[in-house]
């Protein structure tokens, strides 16, 4: 693959840009707009946060920041396997949930043809990609019945190997594959992406002889898209994972300064934080390019799971966290924008836009006698979607609604690497400003523990007892 990211001029042309004009009072008015002074007044807090982040990085506690620079050998190993198996499998299935699935989906949607699974010329002898990301029985059963399992390879992703959803998928898929190809051939149909030194999946992988890739211990699930969690499926589907990491490295370089006005991750994080503190807890991400629609889904987990916390670092109950919402332009102009325009002043809208869509479609000129339709003729879909974004942006701004825009010159591996890394670093910065641990998820665990107990996992008997002794519901309130 070409290494165009080695050309500094090309990198500069491909730099993504953050426009925060519409976050400030000059544009949206004094009642809801932020002041530049409010940003400057946080100078010491930002400096401390910057120092904490880089101290943690140097201590090996900020693993996602290492990924653009430490995976050369891993990238070569992944690419070698993808090339070796090219043409040998028709389907690549990711068995994982949450952080083990959303990044895979976002990369595929962004960087491959919109109908990749249906167009053989787009795949170029590479496998279709399927990411079930759930344990809905009808859906998973139908997937296994639809695929030719003799021509299917599965990537089982779980650091611990105890994720109930993923391991249930694996047990079902393994049985189905064994019935199709025989026990002696099962191992060639599975890859395990897991912890190198601990957990149940690595034990299974070694016993079965599965090809394995490792998730760094200091990288949590929602920050793992640039580890083998996301890189393996990307490489199998023809995505240039070296360029993806180069984009992340480029954004890391841009964001090394503590000067908030020169650091897009910090500036966006600070503005989101200030808006949250001033009564705007809803964070809407609205791409006006379909390729980035699943980036909003990935961001939703990153923002919610990282920043929604009960206690701060001192153990004080604070119950903080902005609520992320995904939308899609122009689709959701016809569903959500009415609320954003005239509802409560409790939201910040982040638009994602692209300069070059990679295609241009002209609208034919017809029905000259029907002015309400004929005016579209001679324009393009590109003009239409870009104008609709800017019109929505202007309307929100005129109505005093905070919004900002991130612009990608085009959607490619380099710009995607920048975008994902920027959001991850932005999340770490906001965690520091909120004085919470942005890298744990204690609120997710209790529901898991009840499930473990009910299904008979040792050590969770007390949770099983709590589950079956839960308060009875009042039938009169079920109508």
Distance between the termini: 61 Å
Strand line-up in the sheet with most strands? 1-12-11-7-10
Low-pLDDT stretches are: none
Rounded mean pLDDT score: 96
Radius of gyration: 24 Å
Q: What is the level-2 CATH architecture name of the largest domain?
A: 3-Layer(aba) Sandwich
Task: Please bin the fraction of helical residues.
Answer: 40-55%
Alpha-beta classification: alpha/beta
Please summarize what this structure is.
The chain is an alpha/beta fold. It contains 20 helices and twelve strands. The strands form three sheets. Strands 1-12-11-7-10 form a five-stranded mixed beta sheet, with helices on both faces. It has a five-stranded parallel beta sheet with strand order 3-2-4-5-6, with helices on both faces. The protein has a two-stranded antiparallel sheet with strand order 8-9.
Structure description:
- It is a single chain.
- This protein has 2 domains: about 5-60 and about 245-435, 3-Layer(aba) Sandwich (Rossmann fold), CATH 3.40.50; about 65-240, Rossmann fold (3-Layer(aba) Sandwich), CATH 3.40.50.10490.
- Helices cover about 45% and strands about 15% of the residues.
- The protein contains 20 helices and 12 strands.
- The strands form 3 sheets. Strands 1-12-11-7-10 form a 5-stranded mixed beta sheet, with helices on both faces. Strands 3-2-4-5-6 form a 5-stranded parallel beta sheet, sandwiched between helices. A two-stranded antiparallel ribbon has the order 8-9.
- Helix 10 (about 200-210) links the parallel strand 5 (about 190-195) and strand 6.
- Helix 4 (about 45-60) crosses helix 18 (about 415-435), helix 12 crosses helix 18 and helix 14 runs parallel beside helix 18.
- The longest helix has 22 residues, at about 415-435.
- One of its GO terms (molecular function) is carbohydrate derivative binding.
């Amino acid at each position: 693959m070409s290494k165009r990211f080695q050309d500094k001029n090309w990198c500069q042309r491909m730099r993504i840009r953050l426009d925060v004009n519409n976050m400030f009072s000059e544009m949206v008015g004094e009642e809801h707009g932020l002041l530049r002074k409010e940003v400057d007044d946080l100078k010491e807090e930002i400096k401390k946060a910057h120092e904490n982040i880089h101290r943690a990085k140097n201590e090996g506690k900020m693993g996602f920041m290492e990924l653009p620079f430490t995976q050369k050998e891993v990238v070569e190993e992944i690419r070698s396997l993808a090339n070796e198996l090219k043409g040998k499998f028709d389907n690549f299935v990711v068995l994982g949930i949450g952080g083990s699935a959303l990044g895979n989906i976002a990369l595929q949607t962004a960087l491959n043809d919109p109908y990749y699974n249906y167009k053989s010329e787009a795949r170029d002898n590479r496998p279709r990609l399927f990411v079930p990301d759930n344990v809905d029985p009808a859906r998973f059963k139908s997937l296994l019945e639809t695929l030719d399992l003799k021509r299917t390879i599965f990537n089982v992703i779980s650091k611990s190997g105890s994720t109930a959803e993923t391991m249930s998928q694996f047990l079902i898929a393994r049985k189905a594959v064994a019935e199709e190809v025989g026990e002696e051939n099962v191992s060639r149909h599975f890859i395990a992406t897991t912890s190198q030194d601990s957990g149940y999946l690595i034990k299974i992988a070694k016993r079965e002889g599965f090809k394995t890739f490792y998730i760094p211990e200091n990288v949590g699930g929602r920050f793992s898209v640039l580890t083998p969690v996301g890189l393996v499926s990307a490489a199998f589907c023809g995505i240039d994972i070296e360029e993806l990491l180069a984009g992340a490295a480029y954004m890391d370089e841009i964001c090394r300064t503590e000067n908030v006005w020169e650091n897009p991750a910090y500036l966006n994080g600070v503005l989101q934080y200030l808006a949250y503190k001033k009564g705007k807890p809803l964070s809407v991400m609205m791409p006006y390019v379909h390729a980035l629609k699943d980036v909003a889904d990935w961001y939703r987990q990153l923002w919610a799971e990282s920043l929604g916390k009960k206690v701060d670092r001192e153990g004080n109950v604070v119950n903080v966290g902005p609520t992320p919402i995904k939308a899609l332009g122009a689709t959701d102009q016809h569903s959500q924008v009415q609320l954003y325009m005239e509802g409560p002043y409790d939201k910040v809208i982040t638009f994602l836009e692209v300069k070059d869509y990679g295609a241009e479609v002209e609208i034919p000129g017809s029905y000259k006698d029907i002015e309400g339709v004929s005016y579209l003729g001679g324009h393009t879909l590109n003009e239409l979607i870009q104008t609709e974004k800017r019109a929505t942006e202007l309307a929100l701004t005129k109505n005093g609604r905070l919004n900002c825009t991130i612009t990608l010159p085009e959607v490619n591996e380099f710009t995607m690497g920048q975008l994902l890394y920027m959001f991850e670093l932005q999340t770490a910065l906001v965690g520091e400003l909120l004085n919470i641990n942005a890298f744990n998820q204690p609120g997710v665990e209790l529901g898991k523990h009840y499930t473990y107990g009910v299904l008979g996992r040792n050590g969770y008997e007390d949770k099983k007892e709590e589950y079956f002794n839960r308060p009875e519901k009042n039938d009169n309130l079920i109508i």
